[in-house]
Here is the input.
Amino acid sequence: MRAYHTPLDLVRSSELEVPAICTRPDLLARASQWFQDRFPGEILYAVKANPSPWVIDGLYASGLRWFDVASMAEIEMVASRCPQAKLAFLHPIKSRAAIRRAYHDYGVRVFAIDCAEELQKIIEETGGARDLTLIVRLAVSNDHSVLPLTGKFGVSAHEAPALIHQARAVADQLGVCFHVGSQCMQPDAFRQAMDLSSRLIAQAGVTIDIIDVGGGFPSLYPGLTPPPLQAYLDTITQAFENMLVLENATLWCEPGRALVADAESVLVRIDLRKEDALYLNDGAFGTLFDASHSDWPFPMRAVHADGRLATGRTVPFRLYGPTCDSEDVLAGRFDLPATLKTGDYIEIGLIGAYGTALTTRFNGCGQYDYVCVSDTPFASAFDLEQRPATITPMHANGPGPSGAR
Here is the structure.
């Protein structure tokens, strides 16, 4: 991977035919170390947020050893790169073959469930194993999240006590987990979910070894400024102390977005300016899926073809992606320097979470050049109290998304 100080140096040094993913290993390491220094339990990276090999390698090198995997492909990839990794298969619904292979071929012992049928599949495909760690996923409120994740997974409060009790009978270690929703904007959402978990555990009348608070830890996007991350950890720690669990119970979390959002940006080229419309070489079927389909706001900065930052008076633009599909358009209008022209560039930040993970090869697009850079042009949740966000938001008409992934 070629290295530059900033993406501006990349623009000056070469002509870019495909979009460039600008990786920032220092920011990845900073996020990982922040959680490791402050979270009072195990940290499981949610691989789905960004399964890029450089990300997996970087987190492992930073000392992270637990990985939340959701498929055999993720299991195989992490196991092949990280020899001492501990894998938790936390997708609540798995095929029988995936359960069998994960347990017998890859030594996976941690499985999530949200119904009795899934529990029975795990029992049968592991041959009635007695060394299982089972995590019961509960349905909780997602009212404080920008992208709610309710409706697909999670056992209801009415049915949860029975499932927890049933799982306890076959589990060596038993836990409960939940997800408060992606980009959770209120720390108290975790307390509410943990209070509910505590009540359901009491109703089940069994001991619990693990409380997994899941993901939802936010990043700092334009118009989406969350409370300081430390407030989330303080809330979780206090709520855990008040839960009806054994003193030796373990606390887990599954950050995805918060660990990797800052670690990648994408440098896109303006292939044509047509009055107030800019046609880019990446879009809705590439790293900008969320900017299009979820109306998600991203920070951005404009760069002239000679590598100078574009500044001065801004005007509203419409942004289109490279495919011939009419849905390849980014929601809203975007205020950018009036001097932009064909051949200039736009760097879009914080695409490390779900940007590269959601890319497709539709219409023959979706190829990227990966480079390493060391600058920090975009504001981060990890320095939220030190500096405000000043980069132009990639969303001109409101504070954030209107839909859910």
Observations:
- The radius of gyration is 22 Å.
